[in-house]
Specification:
Length: 200
């Protein structure tokens, strides 16, 4: 497609109005009111971020960790997946998984608040590498989320990078890199055989 054709396509009147951000960018609440917005659209720095089709590895890791964390979580904690979290006016990302207290859950809500999260987890995809390694951890730390995990694909094996918020600096500190086994005592006791992902 030529550059001229791309410009014509971009300015074609059939494009929905929400493709073009308002002055100052979108705000978090806009995502609840934009008609026909693609599922799992995120808001990062006032801009809409659309999710690419996910690979099998991503789906298997998210499903596996969801089940394992739910099994290990103490009573009163809930695991949620692929729901957006309002961190601030222009930030509404969608972690792959997160843990909240049951008191923060409402049956009809379409988002959660950053201050409610105990743990946020991102499973890195090729198209989201920069966001998952850099921008999102920064946003989660600024929102005061105490624990963050980043999961990466190393030769079809899941490697979990674990971080904890340093209250003195307001940023995350790496506390471990886990290959075949994820054994932690915070934010609660859990012991996960990461090789189990291969059996899904």
């Amino acid at each position: 497609m030529t550059a001229e054709a791309v410009i014509q396509e971009m300015t074609h009147p059939s494009l929905p109005d929400w493709v073009f951000p308002p002055p100052g960018g979108f705000v978090a609440e806009d995502l609840d009111h934009i008609p026909d917005l693609p599922a799992h659209t995120e808001l990062i720095d006032g801009s809409l971020v659309f999710v690419s089709p996910q690979a099998s590895f991503h789906m298997r890791v998210v499903s596996f960790l969801e089940n394992e964390i739910r099994r290990a979580a103490p009573q009163g904690l809930l695991v949620r997946r692929e729901m957006s979290v309002i961190l601030s006016k222009h930030q509404r990302p969608e972690p792959d998984l997160f843990v909240i207290p049951a008191s923060a859950d409402r049956p009809r809500q379409t988002f959660y608040r950053g201050q409610d999260l105990i743990l946020a987890i991102e499973v890195v995809s090729p198209e989201s590498t920069v966001r998952d390694r850099s921008r999102k951890p920064t946003l989660y730390a600024e929102a005061g989320i105490p624990h963050f995990w980043r999961v990466e694909d190393h030769s079809d094996k899941a490697v979990v990078y674990v971080y904890e918020l340093d209250p003195a600096t307001g940023s995350y500190t790496a506390t471990g890199i886990h290959h075949d086994r994820l054994k932690l005592t915070t934010p609660f006791d859990l012991d996960i055989d990461l090789t189990g992902i291969d059996r899904i």
